[in-house]
Amino acid sequence: MAVAGARPNFMKVAPLMADFRRRGRERIAPILVHTGQHYAPEMSDAFFRDLGIPEPEINLGVGSGSHASQTAQVLERMEPVLKEHRPDALMVVGDVNSTLAATLAAVKLGIPVAHVEAGLRSFDREMPEEINRVLTDAVSHWLFTTEESARENLLREGIAAGRIHFVGNVMIDTLLANLDRARKLDTLERLAIEPRGYALLTLHRPSNVDDPSQLRGLMNVLEEIHGELPIVFPIHPRTKAAIEANLDGTIGSLRTTEPLGYLEFLQLMANARVVLTDSGGIQEETTALGIDCLTLRDTTERPITVSKGTNRLVGSDPAALLIAFREVIKSPSQDHEAPPGWDGHAAARVVDILERDLKGLS
Ligand code: UD1
Asked: Which long-range contacts (CB under 8 A, 24 or more apart) does 306-313 make?
């Protein structure tokens, strides 16, 4: 049984579902569960359509809520589903509330959990995702990692070495499989922008958008940057709500759009001069694409994107963003390499290990 709940899960689950399908139902008969954490068509359905993910067999319909209530509802609604279907294993991806809640429901029923994208650590326990990562990893049976730092983190936390499997990055499987399709879209023409002639912005971390003075400071600097290079800004629902509540809905002159589908966003990333973001996954996607990325956070759980890739950690101070922006325009990244295992075949490596071990268990 595979679980997906929120937008950053969908591009990770897609290549795994595709790999299950390739192997055939007599070998693996997957059941896909959508928790409903993200439910808006542009945050969910669009990704299933763009990426050809099969319709989930089960939707828990959890929706938005506080962390406690969202987590509790997935936990509660997952239990009868697991009891009814009794899967041999539960597969979870990433670090969202749905990841942790589904994991807890399974391990309490004695169903082993496979965590794809295990071991990433920002060492910032104020990030809700960090709590989800640490707890999910602590009780998972298989820990599939994307980069070397993850193994060190897991070993330090006392995870047995035999459970840790370096497989590479399933999200990059999806990126490589879809890049040609994305490049054919007319997104740039539609937004009247030129290749390399714009910055692409995403912003949704609570640490950046929930505090009105932080959000105001960032928006002021972004307006200044927009005067030097046009900014395209697909707005996450959380950010939209925060701008409406705390900044009277004023976004300035940035070119805003609704949240975009996977392919359109990929096309925009691949052609951007620079990407400004506080997302986790986008740090990895820009590294795979060789596009400069400025990350508006104090920490990253994905250090390989800085050491090998095109990512620079700017911090959350808006003044530092302006300095870093001018610096990256003046001296773009020269040498970057694709991290090991970010090669389009990570999902196959995950499923090979699962299939081998599940045979051993049955
Ligand atoms: C979640 C993940 C985060 C991930 C992000 C990507 C957790 C703790 N966080 O954060 O790691 O980077 O998804 O988007 O799981 N909303 C809608 N429509 C939707 C979904 C949400 O309008 O389909 C609005 C609701 O007002 C909701 C808010 O967005 O309260 C936040 O959604 P939520 O699922 O709580 O977390 P994200 O901020 O999206």
From this structure: 308/336, 308/337, 308/339, 309/283, 309/284, 309/336, 309/339, 310/286, 310/336, 311/283, 311/286, 311/287
